[in-house]
Amino acid sequence: MYLLLTTKEWLGGLRTYALPAVLLSLLLLLGIAFAGTHSRSAQVKKNRLAANAHFRQQWEQLKTGDPHSAAHFGTYIFKPVMLLSNFDSGLEPVTGTSMRIEAHVQHSMAAPALRPVDIYTRFGGLTIASILQLFFPLFIIFGCYDSYTQEKTSGTLGLLLIQGASQNIILKSKARYYLTAVNIILLISLLIYMPALLFSGTSSTDNTTLISILCLTVAYSIYCSIFVLLAIVVSAIAKNGRQSLLILTGCWLVWNILIPRLGAGIAAELHPLPSQYQQQEKIEKAIKMGINGHSPKEERQQQLIDATLKQYHVERTDQLPINLNAILLQASEDYAQMVYDIYNAKTDSIISIQNRYNNYLALADPYLAIRHLSMALCGTGYIQQQQLDNAARQYRNDFIRRLNNELAYGGSKTDDSHWKVNAAFYQSIPPFHYQTPALSQVLKSQWVMIASLLLWLIISICLLQIIAQYAGIE
Amino acid sequence: MLQAIALTKQFGRHTALHALDLTVQKGEIFCLLGPNGAGKTTTVNCFLGFITPTSGRALVNGIDVAQQLSQARQHIAYIPETVMLYAHMTGLENLVFFDSLTGNHHTREHYTTLLISAGLQENAINRRVKTYSKGMRQKVGIAIATAKHAQVLLLDEPTSGLDPHASNEFSDLLRRFSEEGRAVLMATHDLYRAREVASRIGIMKNGRLITEMEADTVDHYTLENIYMEHMRTV
């Protein structure tokens, strides 16, 4: 009987052109998104390769022989283009992917910008992910809202029941058909666009990417299945198609528009971040007057001069075998970094609390769950951003320390303006390398999102089971 | 075959059926007459299990519909006032589909014969139902009911939308069902048709069966007078 009823549904879907229409519409939307993101990322990759080569060459052929001047000259580092960022650009449009490295200046990555939590939940550009997250569920709703109500209102349900089909079987057959159809449409779409992404040449493909794609496919399949099952459940309990459509579009609005904004707003209201200006002012004051407010920069410098003179058993700075100015510069850098670390830790803890709100909300909202999981699997999520921040900060500090140490201990003396390093030294400083977090680490960080999707899938299945027992014709 | 015992149905504060007692025996055609809202369709729906009675019992072949719905439905064939079919399927496909749900499997020729017997033109059999008139859909509905070989036939204004010729053919079909020993309960407004085919006639008003008679004890004129008389009284 399942086969009979499901075949009838397939026949309807194909003969009324509902299925081909949905498939073509989705492919068209995805095509537009793919074309846009692909041309943008191809341009970004081209620019980045050129910029990388340019800045590296500039660095290796620096005219100045003074390492500290070189530190002031600085360089740029870039986040590698992630292959799947074309699928889901995640936080990248907001946080950016390039940063400047310079002495004394803590760039935005070294001192992360105070990002409000709602950057994660606002509408992004038109990407494959945003279409699958926002628009495909709408297609599903429009396709399924009338699945059972139509049988009820048209009168075919009565005939089905009298001929021996139970409500249970009818609903489950519909669920089977719509689940299969939606997942086939999803798979066809992914089978067309994923290889296009993989072979578009923006980056190399490895096993991790393939496993990430598999995880993405499973996650989106679960996400879409939740909408299918809920649409059938609502259709079974609604009096007519109009009521069913109203309830379902209401759910979509709450999940995909309201909760993400409301949640972010509540989190930001309860745990506000200080303004960028206030934060910077405090940091500068702490660097100048000391973190406790009682050890000004001049006093700290004098203590270091005295300690260095004592260490080298000399009385004047010109008797030192090293360059005291460079030591003072590095000490100033270290102190500034310590201050930044303290303030960043405070900021990070607020962001982490705000994110916790998002995590809790994701349990009530599968859209938030798929959004976070998708960007994390595509390498454009918060976890990757955090690791990039840390890697960039680490690289910057090592970069500046290496230059200052060369000036301090490489043979120059205090106030010696003629000492120079050769180009080989600059070449010996390695370029920035960013290692993305392992997939297992990413999945571990997204356990709430995975749990949310599974929870909603189970809820939907249970609801369907319950409704299948009680859905009537009255 | 069909038995209603003190069958009562309330929709909120409105009582649609007042302790209805009714029996339709094997080979009997029982026609329920009455104005709109008299409770005819509610009675049929109680036997179909589409609505649950507030009290009382509806029995099909001795099976309580409320208790053993699916078993009871195995014995029932049903033709509603407007047979709704799947518009994207042909008449033949609809018949094959609905009959297959009962577990029957026959040849294409068998189903074609059933549709032609029900009065559907041969050239319409393989056309999509979306091109059918109401009468044509009704004929497919008759074919579906015939194919099921059920012992009980429940009909709710089945001749609505049928042309006179098809209506006469339908009357012949009902007589054949009766001869085969099936029990038929038909709700209708058509006094003429009721007098033509029924074994017994019942008149309903305000959810009550107010009178019952053997069809051969009245002619068309008398039946109409009785009916009108009952409709005039409060």
Automatic annotation (TrEMBL), chain A:
It comes from the Bacteria. Keywords: Membrane, Transmembrane, Transmembrane helix. InterPro entries: DUF3526. The keyword Nucleotide-binding does not apply. The chain crosses the membrane at residues 17-36, 123-142, 178-198, 210-238, 245-268, 447-468. This is DUF3526 domain-containing protein. It comes from Chitinophaga pinensis.
From TrEMBL, chain B:
SUPFAM superfamilies: P-loop containing nucleoside triphosphate hydrolases. Keywords: ATP-binding, Nucleotide-binding, Transport. Residues 2-231 form the ABC transporter domain. GO terms for molecular function: ATP binding; ATP hydrolysis activity. InterPro entries: AAA+_ATPase, ABC_transporter-like_ATP-bd, ABC_transporter-like_CS, ABC_Transporter_VariousFunc, P-loop_NTPase. Gene3D superfamilies: P-loop containing nucleotide triphosphate hydrolases (3.40.50.300). Pfam families: ABC_tran. This is ABC transporter ATP-binding protein. It comes from Chitinophaga pinensis.
